[in-house]
Structure formats: structure tokens, C-alpha cells
């Protein structure tokens, strides 16, 4: 590797894990307002494999235009190598983590040895956790934070005319579907921290894991349909979303709320009859919110579970692990 290049994972076409190539790539150029980070770990998230495939499940008008070759990824943890002259608050040698340039599809480029990031997307890495854990936190943690606690921005909502508004959680019953996944397991902990009674929905093998994170009740969806068991719930966070999310309307009390993380809800008329608010948003990079989450991570109030780790060069294998499903926590790429 020369000083003008670095190792990265690039792809030249849409497709399965086999399109991911470990190769030399141009070294990123530091621009005003940015920080150059030597990456130690990269968190893998659903938008990574959606983009890898070409967002084939989105309507054509929603599919972002990207240029090849592209580098996937947004979540990083690493060490500051350089800062632009106009950047304050970060210095060379600082350990940082962040969700970089999301949701600017194809511009995050985190599957690489180095990445430049807007300073506003980063926070100091909590001293009490390592780079692998920190890399697993940003998108999952910010999704839970912005859906459940504070939106933190005024950007137009791409999914609905009105802004998403979190609801008070203290003393409420919150059901989290897909509770063992990246977003789900952090959302369980955030809801508990806010004083909610949490019902976790996942497959049976995750029960002890989720109860250890604070879940008050557990529903094994492989044995029972959660909509047949849970009743009088105040809020459902469906981390899986999609066309089946409307089934959770049956679990909610009048005046309750359903927050699907992914698009596909199509039962607006029924929700209106039941007096239920259905709302979603798109997570966005937010360094100050990440700093708040970092304090919870440092204190052990919230922890990140790691399903598996792979060297950056084995990103293809990491994406194959995604295809296997039943992930507990996060998958992380490491760079020595």
C-alpha cells in the first residue's frame, strides 16, 4: 500500500456477497469540516446489504443513484489521524466513533482502512469499551434513540408528511419485535432505562440474552404469534417492519403507537379506527446524540452485543453470515 492508497472493500456491480472485493482504493481526501479517521472496526448494518443488492425491494423512484466502484458502510470506530483547520473538539490521537454521512447512500465508505467524516457525525469513543463494541453502536443506537427518545433534527421525513415524534416511555408497556437484533437489543435497554415495561419478541434461543438486558417479558415467535398474546401495549417498536407490521395493531390499546423501522405498513385505515398513531423516520448521523449514548455505554447502562467479527478482508463472509439470519447483536469487521 502506498500513501496514496489504502485497503478497502469495493464493488463494481449490485449482487450478493460475492461482489465484494478486497483491494487497493484511493486514499480519502480531507475536506473542510472533516476528520480523517484510521479505522479499527466497522459495524455492519441492514443498509449495507440493501445497497450491495441495489435496493431491489424499494420502488424504482426510491432507489438511490450510486456510482461504481462503491464502498459500503457507515459505522466506524478508530483513531483521529488528521483534522481540518476549521474543526474544533477533536485532536490527532483521539479515539472516536460515529455513523458517517448517513443517509447519503454510497458516500459513507466505511469498509476501508481510512475514512473522512464530518466532525458533526463523530463522538469521542467511550473509554470503557473497545473499538469492536463502539463500531457496533452508532446506527443501532441512534435508530433506537431517534425512534424512542429524541429525533434530534428537523429534516423532512421521507416516509410521511409529518415529523416523527417519540412518546414518553416511563411507566408504559413497550413491545419490541426483533428484539435480539442490532437495533432491537439496544432499544430494549433504552426503553428500560427510560422506565418502560418491556416485552421482547424473538426466537427462543435469545430469551436468556434478552432477559439479561432487562426484558420483563419474552415471547418466542416460533411458538406463539405475539399479536395473539400481547394486549394493551402502549407502544410497539417493530424493528423488522415491512408488510406484516400491521398485525401489531391488535396488541395496542387505543391511543397507542406503532413505530415500524422499515417501510411496508399498509393498514392506515384500521389504525385510524383504533386511534393508533403509526409513525416512522429515517435515522440520521448525529454526533451529540452519539456522545450521550456513549456515556450510557461507558457506564454499562447500555451494552452492545457482538454476534461475530470478521477481518475487513473477509467482508464477503460477514455478509454471508447476515444471510444466515438469527443474528444476536451486531456483526463487526476488524482492521489490524
In short:
This protein is of the alpha/beta class. The protein has helices spanning 46-53, 131-135, 138-148, 182-193, 207-212, 226-229, 268-273, 287-299, 315-324; strands spanning 5-10, 21-26, 34-43, 75-83, 95-99, 114-118, 122-124, 173-177, 197-202, 217-220, 233-238, 252-260, 277-278, 306-311, 330-334. The chain starts with a strand and ends with a strand.
Describe the structure.
Helices cover 22% and strands 26% of the residues. The chain is of the alpha/beta class. Helix 5 links the parallel strand 9 and strand 10. Helix 3 packs across helix 4.
Task: Write down the domain tally.
Answer: 2
Describe the global form.
globular
- Helix and strand pattern: EEEHEEEEHHEHEHEHEEHEHEHE
Tell me the Rg in angstroms: 20 Å
Oligomer: single chain
For this entry, give a set of tags.
336 residues, Rossmann fold, Quinone Oxidoreductase, Chain A, domain 1, 15 strands, alpha/beta, 2 domains, 7-stranded mixed beta sheet
Amino acid at each position: 500500500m502506498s500513501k496514496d492508497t489504502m485497503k478497502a472493500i469495493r464493488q463494481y456491480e449490485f449482487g450478493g456477497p460475492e461482489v465484494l472485493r478486497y483491494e487497493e482504493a484511493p486514499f480519502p481526501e480531507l475536506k473542510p469540516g472533516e476528520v480523517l479517521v484510521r479505522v479499527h472496526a466497522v459495524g455492519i448494518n441492514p443498509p449495507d446489504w440493501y445497497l450491495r443488492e441495489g435496493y431491489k425491494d424499494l420502488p424504482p423512484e426510491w432507489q438511490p443513484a450510486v456510482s461504481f466502484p462503491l464502498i459500503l458502510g457507515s459505522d466506524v470506530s478508530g483513531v483521529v489521524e488528521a483534522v481540518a483547520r476549521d474543526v474544533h473538539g477533536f485532536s490527532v490521537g483521539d479515539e472516536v466513533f460515529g455513523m458517517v454521512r448517513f443517509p447519503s447512500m454510497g458516500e459513507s465508505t466505511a469498509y476501508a482502512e481510512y475514512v473522512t467524516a464530518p466532525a458533526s457525525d463523530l463522538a469521542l469513543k467511550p473509554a470503557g469499551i473497545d473499538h469492536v463494541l463502539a463500531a457496533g453502536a452508532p446506527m443501532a443506537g441512534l435508530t433506537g434513540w431517534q425512534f424512542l427518545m429524541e429525533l434530534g433534527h428537523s429534516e423532512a421525513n421521507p416516509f410521511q408528511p409529518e415529523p416523527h415524534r417519540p412518546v414518553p416511555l416511563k411507566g408504559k408497556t413497550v413491545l419490541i419485535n426483533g428484539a435480539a437484533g442490532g437495533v432491537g437489543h439496544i432499544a430494549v435497554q433504552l426503553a428500560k432505562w427510560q422506565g418502560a415495561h418491556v416485552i421482547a419478541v424473538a426466537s427462543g434461543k435469545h430469551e436468556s440474552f434478552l432477559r439479561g438486558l432487562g426484558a420483563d417479558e419474552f415471547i418466542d415467535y416460533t411458538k406463539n404469534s405475539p399479536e395473539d398474546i400481547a394486549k394493551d401495549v402502549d407502544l410497539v417498536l417493530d424493528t423488522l417492519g415491512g408488510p406484516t407490521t400491521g398485525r401489531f395493531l391488535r396488541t395496542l390499546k387505543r391511543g397507542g403507537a406503532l413505530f415500524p423501522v422499515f417501510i411496508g405498513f399498509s393498514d392506515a385505515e384500521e389504525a385510524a379506527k383504533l386511534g393508533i398513531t403509526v409513525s416512522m423516520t429515517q435515522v440520521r448521523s448525529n454526533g451529540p446524540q452519539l456522545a450521550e449514548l456513549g456515556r450510557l455505554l461507558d457506564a454499562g447502562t447500555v451494552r452492545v452485543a457482538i454476534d461475530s467479527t470478521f477481518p475487513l478482508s473477509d467482508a464477503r463472509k460477514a455478509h454471508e453470515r447476515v444471510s444466515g439470519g438469527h443474528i444476536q447483536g451486531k456483526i463487526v469487521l476488524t482492521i489490524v
